[in-house]
Protein 1
Amino acid sequence: MNCSLNEVDALCRKAARGAGYSWGLAEDAGKAARWLHANDLPGATCLAHLLNATDGVAYKDLAPQPAGRLWRAAGGLLCPIATGCALNDCAHRLAQDDSITLGPMRIAILLLPFAAAIATQTGRAVGLSQSDLRIVTDGTSLWVDGDRRVLLAPRTADCVVEPADIPDSTATGQNHTRARLSPETYDRLAALAQRTYAPATEASRTAGAGAGLTDND
Amino acid sequence: MNRQNRIIAGAPALRPPQQVMRLARLGSLHQSRLSFMRILLRRLAAENWRFQQRLFDIDKRGVGRAIYTAEGPDRTYSLIAFAHDLPEEKRSDRVIAEAWDATFALFDGIPTQADLDRLAENVPLQEAGRVSESELSLSRANRSVRLFEHVVGRLAQGQQPDPETVAEVGYLMRTTAVYGSGKFGAADRETIASRPECAAPFQIEMLSVYLTRAFVMDLVEHLARARAPDTAVTLQPALRRRFGIGNSTGLGMAPFLINHPILLNNWILARETALARVRKLPSADPAQTETFRNRVRRADRMVALWRSAHPLQIEKLAMLRADMDLLSAHLATRPLAGATPWEALYQWGEATLSTEGQELLVSLLLEPFGDLVDDLADTMSADETQPTRIDGAMPIADLRALIASHYDWALQIDWASPQAQARAWYVSAEKLEPRLGERHAEPIADYEQPLSPGRDAAALDRDLAQDDPSGTVASFLLRHPQHRHILRRVQLVDRYPYAEIRDNTIADDVLPIDMLRCKLSFFGAGHFDPRSDRWVRINMFQGAPFPDELCADSIDDWTYPDLAGPP
C-alpha cells in the first residue's frame, strides 16, 4: 500500500494508543514512524512488531529506570518509544557532553527519530553505538557505519547515546515523501487502531453526529 | 523568547487570549481579508492566473467528466470532476454517505488519459478509493435539488431564475467534505508547502472549491441547453455571481482546532496582529474612511440577507442587526477623527456591540488596509510534521506556574460535577468519524479522544501538586506517561498564546458549532446556518468573480453584496 506520511503518522498514533500507550506517547510513536519512512526506513512495520511485543505489558515494565548514566527496563527489555521520549525529555543532559547507556531494547531502530530530535533540539549531532554499528544524526541526515539491520532485530544488547561529531563519510538524507506498507503491516496497525473506536450504539448513530434534521433539499 | 512572544511584547494592543479564545467569541467570527478564500483570489488575480475548461464531456442527464485547469506562473493545477446521476434516495449530506451527485480531485499538473482512467476508478468512491501523490485534494458535492431544478428549468425556458429563490439557498451544489493533505493516499501538504501559492493554509482546498463553483455553473447552463437547445439562455453575470458553493460541516471538523494548536495560534495571531496595526493608526485618510463606510453599508445588507432557521443563530442575528443599526448611527454622527480614530471606534464597539457585532467590526476594520495587513497571510501556516518537544529540564514549580497562568479558567471548574464532564469526544467504529456523546449515559469514556485540555490540565496540576516542586518535568513524565499529551500542550501554549481554546470542550452546554464557525470563518465562509448544535451549513465564494472575471483592481470587496445588485 502506497501511503502518505500523514497516513502513516495517524495510523501509527492510533495503533500505539490501541496497544495501550498513553496519547502523549502514541503521538511520539506516530511521528517516529513518519520520520523513519521519510528516511526510507520501515517505521510502520517496526512499530507493528514492537506493539505486538508490548501489547498488554505494563508501562512500568518497559519504561527506562534511570540509574545515573545507565537506563534499564524493570521488565528486562526497554521499549524504544518510552525510552526515546524519556531521552528527548533529557536532551539537556546530552547537550552537556553526557552519555547514556541503554540496556537491552526491543527494535532499537525506533530510537533513531528520537536521537534525531535531540540533535535538532540541542544543535549538536547525536551518535548511537551498538557493538560494531555506529549511527550519527544531525536531525535530518544519517551517517551509518556498520550494518544498520542490527537495529531491526527484535532485541539488541546495550547501546550508547551521546553527543557526536559529524563523520566525513556520505550521509543519507530525509527526502522520501511516501511509505510502502505491506498488507500485513497495515492490517495489524489498523486492527490495533480499531481498539480506539467506540462500538456504535443506536444513541450514537442518531445523536452523536448531530444529524436528525433533513440534510437534503 | 520566541517570535510570538516578541510580537506580543511589542504590541500592547493585541487582545489577550483570555478575551479572544473563548468559545462564544470564536463562534462569532466572520470572514476577513485574512480568510483563505480571499488570500487565494488575491493571488490568482495579482499573478494573472489563466483558467481553461479542457474537457467537458457530460451528457444530457448530467453524467460524465470535466477538467478545469488553473495555470499560475510556475505550475498548473487541474480540477477533475466526475458528474453522476444520483437517485434521489441516495442524496445525503452526511459525511458517511456513499454516493454523490459529483466527485472531484485536484490534480497536481495536467492529467494524462491514464491518470483520468485511474481516477475514474477511485474518485467516485471517495473514502473507499485510493488516490496518489499526484492528487492534492479529494471532494464531493450534492445538488440543492430545489434550486438546481429551478435554475435549469428557467434557463431552458429562456428565463433567468428568480433572484429571491436564488438568495434563499445561495448555491447549486454543497460539498460535504474536501479532503486534503495526505488523506486517502493524496500528497501530504509538506510536499507542496514550499510553493508560494501554498504558503497560506488550505489554498489547495480553496482552489478546488473555486473551480468546482465554475464547473457547477457551466453544468446547469449545459443541462438547460441539452433540455431546450432552441430556447435556453445563460445566466446574467450579476445573478451568476450570487451562486456560491454550499457546504455542510459536521462534528468531523470540530476537533481540528484542538488537534492543530500551533495552526490555530497562527490564524488568530495574524488576525489579532492585523487588528492591532489598524488600531494604532494615528489618523484616517478620506479614501480609507470611504472604503470603510462602503463596506459597513454592504455588510449591513449582508446581515439583512442572512437567514437561519436555528434558534441560537436567529437570536445572534437579531442582535447583529441591532448592532449594524447602532454602528450606522454612530458613523453618521461621529467623524473618524481625533488621535487613533480606528482605536476609538474599536473601543466604542467593544463597549456597545454584541460579540457577533464586535467581531464583524473587527473584520470591517481590516477592509481598507490591505497594504497594512495582507502580508500576514504568509504567517498563518505551521509545520506540524515535527513533534513538539517537551522541555524536560523545566522545574515542576515553573510548570505549575504556567498552568496557573494559562489554565486558570480550568482550575476554577469543579470537574467532579456531572455537568463539567457531561460529554466525551470519541470516534465511532462504524463510520470512523469524530462524535460527541453523553459520558454518563453511553459506554464511551474508555474511547475518549484527548480533546478536553481544560480537564486534563486540571488533572495534571493535581498530580504535580503531589510531586517535589524542585523536581523536573522529565522525571515527572517518566512516572506519569498519561500526562504527556497535556503537558506538551501546557508548554506549547506558553509559546503560542492563542493555541488553546480557553473553555470547557466537554461541558453539558458546549456548542461544537462554535468550533466549526471559527474554522470556517478563516476559510472565508459566510451565511452560517446551524442545523443543530453540532452541524452547520455555509456558503463559500458567494459573490466572488468567476475565473474569467478576476481583476486585481477589484478583488477586495466580493464578500460583501453590492448595494444595488440581486440579493
Note: Chain B touches chain A through 70 residues (CB under 8 Å).
Protein 2
Amino acid sequence: MSQDLVKLLEVKGVEKVFKVRIGTFGKKDLHALNGVSFDMFKGKTLSLVGESGCGKTTIGKVILGLYQANSGSVLFGERDIAKSTPKQRGVIQKEIQMIFQDPYSSLNPRKKIGTILEQPLKIHTNMDHKERMAVVHSLCSDVGIDPDYLDRYPHQFSGGQRQRIAIARAIILKPELILADEPISALDVSIQAQILNLMMDLQEKYHLTLLFITHDISVVKYISDFVAVMYLGEIVEYAPKEALFKSPRHPYTKMLLSTVPTIHTPLVTKSVLENGEVQTPIDLPQGCFFANRCEYRDETCDTVHPDMVDNGEGHWARCPKF
Amino acid sequence: MALLEVNNLKSYFFTKEGVVKAVDGNSFSIEKGEILGIVGESGAGKSVTGFSILNLLDPPGKIVEGEIIFEGKDLTKVNEEAFEKIRGDKIAMVFQDPQTSLNPVMTIGRQLMETMLYHNNSLSREEVYHASVAMLKRVELPSAEKRMESYPHQLSGGMKQRVVIAIALLNNPKLLIADEPTTALDVTIQAQILYLMKKLSSDFGSSLIFITHDIAVVSQLCDKIAVMYAGRIVEYGSKDEIIFDPKHPYTKGLIACLPTLNDNRERLYQIPGVMPSLLNLPKGCYFKERCEFADETCDVYPQKQIIGERVVYCHKI
C-alpha cells in the first residue's frame, strides 16, 4: 500500500456477543462479531458489504458507541473507544456521525428541518443563532435543498430529499468520520443514483472519510476506495476496490459478484447456488463459516478455521485455497 | 387467444384529497407460459395493477373502467363469491414480504393443506398431505416432511418465500402474480428464488406477472416488459426491444442508472427530480419535468405509438 495513507481508525479483533433467549429458560450466545479487524484511512471510503445478519450494522454501532464491544479495540487517533459510551467519549463523539438507512424514521417529525440542522451546532459549537443559520444555509445548497424550505417539516419532503437533509445533518460539524448504514436502500432506483453521486461530491469537497455499509456490492464499485466483505461476523476479504472487483479471492465474494442481477448477464443457474443459506451465529461451526455453501469445500474446511492472509499486495482473504 | 388480456384498465382511489389515478388506462396481455415484467418506481401503480387483476382493491380504491379478460371471461364482472373460486386456484399471488403473508400461528403444513382443500374438497387429507410435501420438495425446501410441522418463525426469509411460492403453485394456477417477491431477500437468496420461479413457471406451464422496481431482475427473467410511470404504462414490448433498444426517455434513464460491475464510469447516470405526486400531475406528459428532451409539444399527453411489436408513449421518437 502506498505511504500517503494516514490511518484514521483502526478496528482490531472486535467481538460482540449478545445473549439471546432460547425457549423459556435457556439462554445462548449470539456471536454477532467474531474478531473484526480493518483500518480506515483519512479521506478514503471503505465499503463494508455483506448479507443481512452478517454483523455489518453491529460493527457500525460499536464504532459509534451505541454498542460496547466485548473484546478487541477501536483506535480513533490515540484513543481506544471500543468499550466507551458516547458520553465517556466526550469531544470525540462529534467527530463520528451517522447517516441511517431510513430517512422516514431518522428525522424527528415534530421539528422543522431548520431546527434539526441547527441542533448539532447548538450543542457542539459556540456560534450564535445568526452564525449557525449561515452555516445551515450554505450546507443546504451543497446538498441540494432549497434554503427557503428550512421551516418545513420532514413529512413535506420526499424520501430522496429527506436523505439529503440527513446527510447535511451528518456533515454539518465537519466530522472526521461518517458512517452511512445502507443510506440508499430505502430509496427508488432513480433516486439512489442521485444520492450516491451527491455523497461522492461531498466527499471530494469536504475530504470526508466514509464507512459505507451496504448489502449491494454493485454500488460499492462507484463509491469505494477499499472494500471489506463480511460473512457471519467476520471479514472474509479486504482489498483496494480495483483488486477486489478484478480478482476476488474469497469464494463468498465470487458468489456475491455472480448473483448481482444485471441486464448483460443471464439468470444464475443452479450450480453456484446449490447450497443453502447463512448459518446461524448462535452455534458457529468449528471450521470455515462459509464451508456449507462453498463449492470448493473439502475436509480441512470443516475442521480448521482459516486466517486472513495477505497476498503481498494488501489484498487479504480468509481462504487457504486462493 | 391470450390467457389474460387487460384493456384500458383504470383503477382509481377516491381519497379526501382528491382522485388518485393509480392505474390510468393501461392495456397489456399475457400468453400461456409467458413471463411479463412490470417495472416502475414506488407509487407508479405496479401493485395496484396486480391487485386489480385479483379484485383485491379495498375502498376507497375501485376499478372504474376497463376489462380484465381471463380465459375469455371478464374478471371485473365476476362477483366476490365466484372470485373466491378463482383466487388461489386459477390465479395465485406471491407477495413481497414472506414474513407477513404466512399465518404465524399455523404450521406450514396446515397452511398448505388448507389452500388445497379449499379448492378441491373431494380429496382426502392423506392425498392433500402427500401433495403438499411433494410441492415443498419441488420448491427445494430442505427436509420437507419435518417442515410441515414447523411454524413460520422457525424458517429463514428465503425458506419462507419458498413456502409462499409452494402455496401459490399448489393448485397449479394458470397465472401467478408475484409482487416484488425477492425485494425483502438477500442477493444470493434472491438469485435462488428467481431461478426457482423461472424453472417452476416453465415446468408447470404457468404464466407469470413479475412486479418489481429492478429492471435488471426483469431483464433476466421476463419475456415481455411493461414500464410504468405515474400510473401509466409508458413503454411496453418484448424484453429484447425494451432492454437493448429502449425508446422512452424514462426507460433509457432506468437502464442507464443501473450500477454495473464491468464498466469504468466514475459517476452514475442520474435522472433528475422525482416522480410527481399522483394528486398533482403535470399537464401533458408526466415525465416532462425530468426529461432532457422535453419541449412545448410535451404539454399534451403523447399518443400511443406502435413501433414493431412495441408500444411507446413519447413525442420525441
Note: Chain B touches chain A at residues 41-42, 142, 156-159, 186-192, 194-195, 198, 213-217, 219-221, 243, 253-255, 257-262, 265-272, 274-275 (CB under 8 Å).
